[in-house]
């Protein structure tokens, strides 16, 4: 995932992510691999300038303005509906803004509470000691922190919160100035979560469609819509001809092949999208609330050969994740 434009802003090493982690972190890895430093071309769509009664906002309209010692706290929750099961999590993170060694403001967030399927999970010492460094400051780098010592149940909250921050950073770097300003950010390069053993193929490919959806002059908030959409020509590797048949209304942009202990292969292909709506405070650029709707429409076959030529009938289903975030 080498991207020279992005390298100017941030560096993330590809992760080896198998289910269920891939559904959580794959999107974040892509977000951290695009040209965040380079604004895309903005187009006004039904642009609505701020009213004359709206207090003047210093340019840029969207920017994070940190205060040293500022307290940050979030509750994030997720409903994950897969083919056979439905799972939920709710987690709480909190921290204080401070400057790092380079003088950039950073939110070092600690995870303090976790519920999985209505059961409170006791956090290990390593999970309590873990800090997720996040920043929307100019020049800050977003990255996936080392996750080897944290509990499995925290992987989802960590990755989903990172995705929200990366989406806001993308939107801020497009420098929208009024309601309706819109940017299409092309990326498309495949992101892989294959481990080479169990998940022999695992890729998705997305572009980004960013819109300044609304401004509330009274509340002094802005709402962003960041859509993760299939590119016109996704760059995923399709292992068999039958995978080219569209599952949704676009070209397939998600593929996964898992090798079972019985020597059979479970192969799926489909359409993955995200609709992310984020409300930020205009005065500070702080995230106030957010929602993420992440469906993957999948056509899956069980095959007896690595070439995926001898396969059973296709089974269609949807994996659907819905995530909400609110500031405390």
Helix content percent band: 10-25%
How many separate helices?
A: 4
Straight-line distance between termini: 35 Å
Global structural class: mainly beta
- The 3D shape can be described as globular
Uncertain segments are 1-20, 35-39, 44-52
- Note the beta-strand portion: 35-45%
What is the domain total for the residues?
1
Rg from C-alpha positions?
20 Å
CATH topology: Lipovitellin-phosvitin complex, beta-sheet shell regions
List the quaternary state of the chains. Answer: single chain
State the name of the first-level CATH class.
Mainly Beta
What string gives the helices and strands in order?
Answer: HHEEEEEHEHEEEEEEEEEE
The largest pleated sheet is described as: 16 strands, antiparallel
Mean pLDDT: 87
Number of strands: 16
**CATH-level-2 architecture:** Roll
Structure description:
Helix 2 runs parallel beside helix 4. The two termini are 35 Å apart. The N terminus is likely disordered. The protein has 328 residues and is mainly beta. The chain has one domain: Lipovitellin-phosvitin complex, beta-sheet shell regions (Roll), CATH 2.30.230. 12% of the residues lie in helices and 41% in strands. The protein has 4 helices and 16 strands. The longest helix has 19 residues. The protein is globular, with a radius of gyration of 20 Å. The chain has a 16-stranded antiparallel β-sheet that branches.
């Amino acid at each position: 995932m080498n991207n020279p434009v992005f390298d100017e802003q941030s560096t993330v090493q590809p992760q080896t992510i198998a289910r269920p982690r891939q559904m959580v972190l794959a999107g974040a890895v892509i977000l951290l691999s695009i040209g965040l430093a380079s604004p895309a071309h903005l187009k006004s769509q039904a642009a609505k300038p701020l009213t004359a009664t709206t207090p003047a906002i210093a340019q840029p309209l969207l920017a994070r303005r940190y205060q040293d010692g500022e307290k940050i706290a979030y509750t994030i929750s997720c409903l994950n509906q897969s083919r056979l099961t439905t799972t939920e999590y709710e987690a709480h993170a909190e921290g204080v803004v401070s400057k790092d060694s380079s003088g950039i403001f950073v939110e070092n967030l600690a995870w303090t509470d976790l519920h999985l399927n209505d059961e409170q999970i006791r956090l290990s010492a390593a999970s309590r000691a873990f800090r997720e460094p996040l920043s929307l400051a100019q020049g800050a780098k977003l990255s996936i922190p080392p996750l080897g010592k944290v509990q499995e149940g925290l992987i989802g909250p960590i990755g989903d919160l990172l995705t929200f921050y990366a989406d806001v950073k993308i939107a801020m770097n497009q420098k929208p100035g009024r309601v309706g300003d819109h940017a299409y950010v092309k990326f498309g390069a495949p992101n892989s979560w294959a481990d080479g053993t169990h998940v022999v193929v695992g890729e998705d490919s997305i572009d980004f469609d960013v819109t300044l959806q609304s401004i509330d002059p009274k509340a002094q908030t802005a709402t962003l819509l960041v859509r993760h959409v299939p590119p016109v020509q996704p760059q995923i590797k399709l292992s068999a001809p039958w995978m080219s048949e569209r599952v949704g209304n676009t070209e397939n942009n998600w593929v996964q092949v898992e090798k079972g202990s019985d020597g059979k292969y479970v192969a799926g292909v489909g359409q993955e999208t995200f609709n992310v709506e984020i409300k930020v405070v205009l005065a500070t650029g702080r995230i106030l609330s957010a929602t993420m709707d992440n469906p993957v429409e999948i056509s899956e076959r069980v095959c007896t050969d690595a070439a995926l030529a001898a396969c059973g009938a296709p089974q269609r289903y949807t994996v659907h994740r819905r995530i909400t975030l609110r500031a405390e």
